[in-house]
Design a protein that fits this description.
This protein is α+β, with helices and mostly antiparallel strands. It is built from four helices and eleven strands. The protein is about 25% helix and about 35% strand. It is found in: Nucleus, Nucleolus.
């Protein structure tokens, strides 16, 4: 596991440093969406997400724009930050797609059929050169990108 000096080595999500082992967050977006999913299943009204990142904030903004979550508040604790999300009870499932596959406009229909339960509701979130947006906005702006996740 550790080198001869015992300084540091990385084993998957476990970081061993000077004899102590700590967990390392591999995908903060996946952790955040899993927390939201679990809180929604338990019927909670709010959920605390940490750490905060720009990608998480923009993903939540897309979800809020479509009414799947309520408002959220970013708390600056002079560390990694926290987000308090108000839940509405409308969200059925949200998740991340890893690895972040490239998505061209012509492949969008195929991904919609695979990920979303119906044509009427649900969104795929993409990161594009024009920012993070849902698949309908990407189609209107005629731009592809990398797939981040989905919610419905």
């Amino acid at each position: 596991c550790c080198s001869v000096l015992g300084v540091c080595c990385l084993l998957g999500p476990l970081l061993v440093t000077r004899g102590k082992s700590i967990m390392v967050r591999m995908n903060v977006l996946a952790d955040a969406l899993k927390s939201i999913n679990n809180a929604e299943k338990r019927g909670k009204r709010q959920v605390l997400i940490r750490p905060c990142s720009k990608v998480i904030v923009r993903f939540l903004t897309v979800m809020m724009k479509h009414g799947y979550i309520g408002e959220f508040e970013i708390i600056d604790d002079h560390r990694a930050g926290k987000i308090v999300v108000n839940l509405t009870g409308r969200l059925n499932k949200c998740g991340v797609i890893s690895p972040r596959f490239d998505l061209q406009l012509k492949d969008l229909e195929k991904w919609q059929n695979n990920l979303l339960p119906s044509r009427q509701f649900g969104y795929i979130v993409l990161t594009t050169s024009a920012g993070i947006m849902d698949h309908e906005e990407a189609r209107r702006k005629h731009t592809g990108g990398k797939i981040l996740g989905f919610f419905f």
